[in-house]
Each structure stands twice: as C-alpha cells, then as structure tokens.
What we know:
About 75% of the residues lie in helices and about 0% in strands. By secondary structure, the chain is an all-alpha fold.
Amino acid sequence: MADKQISLPAKLINGGIAGLIGVTCVFPIDLAKTRLQNQQNGQRMYSSLSDCLIKTIRSEGYFGMYRGAAVNLTLVTPEKAIKLAANDFFRHHLSKDGKKLTLLREMLAGCGAGTCQVIVTTPMEMLKIQLQDAGRIEAQKKLMAAQAQLSSSPAAAAAAEPAVERRPTATQITRELLRSKGIAGLYKGLGATLLRDVPFSIVYFPLFANLNKLGQKDPNVKAPFYVSFLSGCVAGSTAAVAVNPCDVIKTRLQSLQRGVNEDTYSGILDCTKKIWQREGPTAFFKGAYCRALVIAPLFGIAQVVYFVGIAEFLLDLLPKRRA
C-alpha cells in the first residue's frame, strides 16, 4: 500500500466502493469455489468451474449464480474498509519517521489487518456459504431420488422423493443461529478464518506494496492505475493459492448442511485429518484456481479504486463546513 496518508473517512469509502465493485464482478466464480470445495468423494455434482456454472444456470437460472451475493454486498463494504484501512494504520505506526518499512514490519502490518477484518469476515462467510451451497445440496437430493426411482419399485421411489423445501434466507439463518447458539453461532469457524486471513494478509500486503513500487517513477508519485491493478492481481492470486488449504478447512467447518454420506467435523484438526485420510492431500487445493480467479480481479479492482482515491473526489463535492 502507498505510505501516503489520507483521511479515515476517505479510506473507508474507498475500501467500501472497491469491495462492492469487486464482489459484483467475481461472485459467480466464488459460488463455484464454495461448491467445489464442499463436495466430497461421495456424490460429486460438479467436475470443474465451467461445469458448476453451467449446471447452476440450468437448474437455478442466471441469478442462481448470485445466491448469497446480498450478504456479501452488504458486509463487504465494512470488511474491505477495515482490511485496507487497518493495513494503512499499522504501516503508519510501524514506520519510523516516515522511512521505508522493512519486510518484517510490512508482514506485521498485514497480520494486524488480517486479524481486524475477521470481525466482519467470519459472519459474512458463514452466511454466504450456507446460501451458496444450498443449490448443491438440493441438486444432490434430486439426483439421489432419480437414481432411486430407476433402481427400485414405484413405492420406494416415492418414499425417496425429497420433500420440497423453501431455501433459507440470510435473515432466517441468522435468527436461527442467534436463537440456538447466540452470537457464537455466527462466529463458527473463527479459528479457521483467522488461519486463512492472517497468513493471506501477511503474504498479500508486502507483496503488493513491493510490486506496486516497481511501477513508481518517483517515490512521491502514485504508480499508474494499471500497475496497481496488475500488482493487486498478482499479489492476490499468489496469496489465495498459498492459503487455499485453510480456505477449504474453513468452508467445510462453516457449512451447516451436508450432502449424502458427507463427513462432519468437530474442529480444525479433525477436519484436516479426515480430508487427508479420505480425500488425499490434493483435496486441500480444491477450488484453488477458482479462488485465484476471484481474488486476483477482486484485489486488483480494490487497489485501483483505493489508490485512485474516489473518496477524495466525493468528499470534495460535499459543502465545506463553515468555521
């Protein structure tokens, strides 16, 4: 991130706008990532990113690809604002007299940013995953019923026919979790979220800052927007793939519903052990390319918006308060 300090309201507005634009562009890929990560070796519904998106459109329509987007769009503004602004805050306080930060201090700033953002990230991801994966669970039940109909008597097939269920909304899920488990219900998977987001930020922010500096002709002048975009894409995709095993674990732990014959997990270690033993080490990289495709443009767009400083322009339009 650039070490030039801007006002806190500008940082929050820039981060929020960046998050909204980025999520809108890449959400269908994120939905595919969640469904690919959640399916186990039992009843596999999707073989690839394109297969998942095609089947989703066929069974749920175009807007099925945006299931859970409302939660993300609502909470991504504070999430991205906290992440970007916290990184700037920590970089500012870790710098000595405005001097260049060492790599270790850049990593510490990223660590602080990643820790702060989970306040919003954990409940956002928790709700989003339930809504994104609902279509996969429903499709699996229909497929199992169809298979039962082909291999059994009409009476047995009728018994196997899944009941028509209304898909839950984010509000319904939130109310149920708060009623049954309190606020802790929304923070299920907090440890796994920290395990993913803190290392991500430790890798991402220093890598972005150093890549972005390569495009600066003068230390006091911002790099061109395309340099910030490409730096965000490269740093984001690199960090995303690096922490993908943690993202798989987090996704599995936060999923409240399971498909037919799919494992349940009691914690991070239990989840890691079962995935390794029953699905092999490659399972930890399920959806890695989807995640890279999501994170690369998401953070590329975020950094361009953040660095271009749309907020400063918007704030300048507001009438100045008289002294």
